Amino acid sequence: MLASFGTTEPRDLHTRVLAMVEKPLFEAVLENTGGNQLKAADILGINRNTLRKKITDYGISLSRSKS
Length: 67
Fold this sequence. Notes:
Layout: H1 13-32, H2 37-44, H3 48-58
Helix pairs in contact: 1-2, 2-3
């Protein structure tokens, strides 16, 4: 599997993969919950404050819908 990275070992692989996966995951969960951050954090198994920080870090726009 690491052969696809060439002859050098990858750096910060964990951080890069998380960034690729987290943003679309958070966007999908937030959309599914109508923007309800408390519900989204519960589904994700993280603290709401952690979710808020990630929303800011990834520049995720929030749009609340009435469900």
